[in-house]
Structure formats: structure tokens, C-alpha cells
Amino acid sequence: MNLHCPACGERYPLDTGHWHCTCGGVFVIEGAPPFRPADITENESTLWRYRAALSFDPVPANPSPMTLGEGWTPLISANIGGHSVLLKLESLNPTGSFKDRGAVVLMTLLKAQGISRVVEDSSGNAGAALAAYGARAGIAVTLYVPAHTSPAKRAQIAAYGATLVPVEGPRERVAAAAQAAVAASNGREGTRYASHVYHPVTLLGLKTVAYELWEQLGGCAPARVVLPVGQGTLLLGCFLGFSDLLAAGLIERLPRLYGVQAATCAPLAQAYAAGACDVSPVAEGETLAAGVRVARPIRSVAVLEAVRSSDGAILAVDESSIAEAHATLARAGFYVEPTAALTAAALEHLPWEAEASEDGRTILLLTGNGLKQPFL
Ligand SMILES: [Zn+2]
Fold this sequence. Notes:
Layout: E1 2-4, E2 11-12, E3 28-30, E4 75-80, E5 83-88, H1 99-112, E6 117-121, H2 125-137, E7 140-146, H3 151-159, E8 163-167, H4 171-184, E9 191-193, H5 201-216, E10 224-228, H6 233-247, E11 256-262, H7 267-274, H8 300-309, E12 313-317, H9 319-331, H10 338-345, H11 352-355, E13 362-365
Parallel strand pairs: 5-13, 6-7, 6-9, 7-8, 10-11, 10-13, 11-12
Antiparallel strand pairs: 1-2, 1-3, 4-5
The structure holds zinc ion (ZN).
Zinc ion (ZN) binds at residues 5, 7-8, 10, 21, 23, 25.
């Protein structure tokens, strides 16, 4: 398994200190193991039930993968806004968000590589996940977060023992500060930029959402999956996971992937609507859905390609519909953070009539727990 730069074709070993290609390209994984149902560890109720698909060759196999109990989250049927849907409760992961799936795989890899310190930037949830697995692995974590990150998320990150560095200004400035810190540590043995966006091994962990849905639906793909999109890593993970299932002949077609953004900061929705293959610069507007407040997604071209090849779409919803959807979910018993409510807010924009013949199973990925960002 290698890191590969799709922009120039260069290959790097999995343990490289580079976090992007010298040409500026963003890495993808090359040579990931295929998905084989016979490889599933049936009695394992974490994402390590797919351990064969998460193997890190040429890094020595870890005899007991690190875990806090992430993955294998419940899939619950509900009627939301008059629509029959299935809710995947990613909010019940150990740190309260889906980011644990990427973090556990990334930190397992970095631990096996002997890394002792990592730096990362996050709007909150990825940071909490990395901090938790850093605590579990004995890896020191420094996190750069936007100054507007919710107090609950900051408290969670600090409680795990990570060093927290709030940065004023837009999200890009937070990433630049983290990257400058990594560059400044050059030469200090064992420091890595553990970026949940740049490091493609996190996508291996996120693929397990697709594997789980396939198992939980009795060996079928859903008709469509609706999920929040900021950087779009979860969408890419789902796309790669369902692509594995398709390649293995286990499903007949990809589910339609519907990414949802907040209208105040919706570069991907705008590019999709314009038929563009990449995003144009947008202002980083404020939104309740703090987890998708990303004006320049790093993997934008890949996200747009994935959505189009699944016959899905990227939608944008306004602030009042996010708040309304948050209340609708809570009154159905599902307390999620506002970012996760994007999924329910998008329901009224889906082409229900046109796609009704496709067996109707619509999955909403409830990505984060409501306790992380309470609001009234
Ligand atoms: Zn390159």
C-alpha cells in the first residue's frame, strides 16, 4: 500500500514525512485491500470487524488494534418530516462523532510507525477524536482550532490532555497555523501532521460506514445516503466503501450520495449546481452547522466526481431549515449537533417521486452528538 499523487503520478511510502506531494497534490491510498465478506470478524462489534480491509502492509500487522469501541453504530428506522428513513447513529461513537473512524485507523498507523507527537487542525470533532486516540495510544496531540469552536468541544479536547491552540479568523488560517507548526518542528524526530483531511488513511476508516450499511441492510446497498459535507471526507469514504462493494460484485449500483452544505458556506453545492469540476472561492459565512464551515475543501475535485458518478447531488439549506430540522430530529428522540441536522433539512429537496421506484431506502448519517454544541 502506497500514498499516490493523482496530480503528477508520484508515489510515496506510507511512512513518509510529507503530508502532500512536492507538486502540491493531495495524496490518495493506492493498493488498499479489497473487501471480502469472508474476511469479516463476525464477533467483533467495532470497525475492526473489517480489519482485513484496514491492513497496513508494509507496516507490521498490529496484533491488537487500538480501540475505544468505535464503529458498528446502530441503524434505526424513523419518520422524519413525513418521510420514512433510516438513521445511522454516528453520534454514538466514543467521542460523539463519525471522526473516530478515521482517527482510530490513522493513530493505529502512526503508533505502529513510532510517531510520538502529532499536530492537527480541526473545527472540533476531528480534534476531539484525535485527542482521544492520542490519549489511548500515548501520542502527544497539539490541536489548532477556530476561535469560534464551541466551548463543549474545546473542553472535550482539553480533557483528553491535548494542547489546544485557538486561532482567530477563517478556517484556512487555522490549517495554515498547524502546518507552520509542523514545518517548525522539522527535524524533531517523530512529529507528524495528523490531518484528517490530508492523510488518506483516514478514508480507509471512513469506508467502514458503507460496509456496515451493507451488512445492516442484509447484504444490499441503500437507494441513497444523505450526509453533511464540509471537507467531504465522509462522502469520499462512503464512495470508496460502496465502490469496494461494487467491485466485489456484492451490490449492483452505487447508492446516490447526497451531500448537504449550509447555504452560507456552500462552495461544493455552488460548483455542483454550476456543473463545474472544481470549486470557486466563496466567503466563509457563519452557520449553526459549524462542522461544515469550510470555504475551500481540499479534496473538492474528488468529492464532486464521487457525487456525480453516484448520480447524487450536493444541496444547500438555509439556517432556519437547519434549526427546524434539528428540532424535528430531537422531537423524534434524536439529539444531534446542528451539522448533523443538515441531513433532515435536505429531505424536502430530494426527488422522492422520481426515485421512489428504487426501493426507497434513504439513509441519513447523523454525524455528531447534540451535547457537543447545545443551542436553543
Ligand atoms: Zn504530485
